[in-house]
Amino acid sequence: MRLFDPRFRRFTGRYVLQSLMAAVVLFVILAILETGAHLIVIAAIGSSTFIVFTMPHIRQAYPRSLVGGHLVGLFSGAACYIPFFWLFPQQRLIPDTLVVVLTGALAVGLAIFLMTITNTEHAPAAGTALGIVLQGLTWTGVLFVVASAVGLSLARWLLRGWLRNLV
Q1: How confident is the model at residue 4 (pLDDT cuts 50, 70, 90)?
Q2: How many Cα atoms sit within 13 Å of 144 on the Cβ side?
């Protein structure tokens, strides 16, 4: 068992370059979108960045999965968040902590179901669904996720001649 990928020695420059590109692109996206209010969904976008810059030629890095998956995650999170937290905020018979746990689990399950039936599978987007439940549904959060996914798709397209699968 090896600690390092056997291809690393041969393609060291490629590994370093793509990792730096990922850091720069994510920095630009986060700086432009001012991320303070979106700390939970940032983790999902960070995971998407990993896929785009280490496996740019797999289906999950393509716009249908990347943008579509996050849209499904947003929809799923909102579909579970709105009934429990907006429509009936004071009329719960179970404790708030249990409501959050149940709603989060339902949002992730719904996201998985919808992504698989629409061929928009993108694992980090399940984190988007959970993030919406945990941090709350806001227009700025929705815009952050959509703009980040579109920005990563655009970066992947612009860098398509440079990016190689590292995994």
Answers
A1: confident
A2: 25
